[in-house]
């Protein structure tokens, strides 16, 4: 990656975001849940329609991506 970034002809700032997977439920009733279809949809929206992500509720993120807050 470094060589590819340094080979870019312009001086740019670069951010690298990496994860083994986006959706995970690691505790609670849905422990073990993951949603690879949502992961792909999320990345697509992040690139092509990030404003749509701002319109989603926390509940929608929790249902699609896995999360369990305090009861």
From TrEMBL:
Bilayer-crossing regions: none
Highest taxon listed in the record's lineage: Bacteria
All copies of domain Extradiol ring-cleavage dioxygenase class III enzyme subunit B, residue ranges: 1-64
GO molecular function, one term: ferrous iron binding
Pfam families, per database record: LigB
InterPro entries, per the entry: Xdiol_dOase_suB (IPR004183)
Coiled-coil boundaries: none
Name recorded for this polypeptide: Extradiol ring-cleavage dioxygenase class III enzyme subunit B domain-containing protein
Source organism: Klebsiella pneumoniae
């Amino acid at each position: 990656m470094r060589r590819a970034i340094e080979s870019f002809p312009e001086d740019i700032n670069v951010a690298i975001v990496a994860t083994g997977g986006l959706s995970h439920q690691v505790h609670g009733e849905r422990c073990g849940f993951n949603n690879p279809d949502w992961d792909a949809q999320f990345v697509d929206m992040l690139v092509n329609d990030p404003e749509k992500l701002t319109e989603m509720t926390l509940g929608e993120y929790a249902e699609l991506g896995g999360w369990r807050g305090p009861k």
